[in-house]
Fold Methyltransferase type 11 domain-containing protein.
Amino acid sequence: MSNLFVKQAKQYAGARPSYPPQLFQFIASKTPSHNLAWDVATGSGQAAKSLAELYQNVIATDASEKQLEFATKLPNVRYQHTPSTMSIAEVEQKVAPQGTIDLVTIAQGLHWFDLPNFYAQVNWVLKKPHGVIAAWSYNLPRLSDAVDSVLDQFYGSDTKPYWDQARRLVENNYRTIDFPFEPVDGADHTGPFEFVTETVMDFDDFLTYIKSWSVYQTAKEKGVELLGEDVVEKFKLAWGEDGQKVAKYPIYLRIGKVSDA
């Protein structure tokens, strides 16, 4: 998974959306203490930066050293390069001891994981009781009727042959992803709970965002340029004369707690 984003790490850091404060406030309200959070597959640290405002310390890990190079450095965030798959012993060595973490977060990454192995780590490292895991994904941004129409067609036809099967879990808004945890206090299910994040982008930003997709690099390695001149021209016509547009990304959160046992 980590290799999918190596070649466009800079685009990923610059083009991917940040997440709304409401999302983190909701998550943080479900953990009784705010000492230590583990942001898994942190990428360039979009989520870790926000967690650092709510938790005393954050451990932000990723299997891509290139991605971590572009992460914002903060005094209470420790960035750690880790293997794609870790044993419990490696989790203890590289992340934290057993039962010491208040919150585990995964932003736009859970669909890539070996879930049984990862969930064993989560259950081992989270505090009992009340340790919380929160994972979210976001889908295509909405910008305008004209741009959305071209983007949906581009996504549904041009890119479809090159997406990994894991992408289907994102398309289903994480409804069908395996998530064997108990509802957090105050909830009767584990989600998805819906949020929205907004960012302002110009046309070049929009193209950079598409180039940050894993599928863009996958297609390129197969000799296919997804953003050919004809495709770019379609997007340009749909974009119109507006210099900038507000992109709204729907976010879908799954959140749960480990059992007390």
Remarks:
- Strands lie at 36-40, 57-62, 77-81, 103-107, 132-138, 193-202, 244-257.
- Confidence is low (pLDDT under 50) at residues 1-14.
- The CA atoms of residues 87 and 93 lie 10 Å apart.
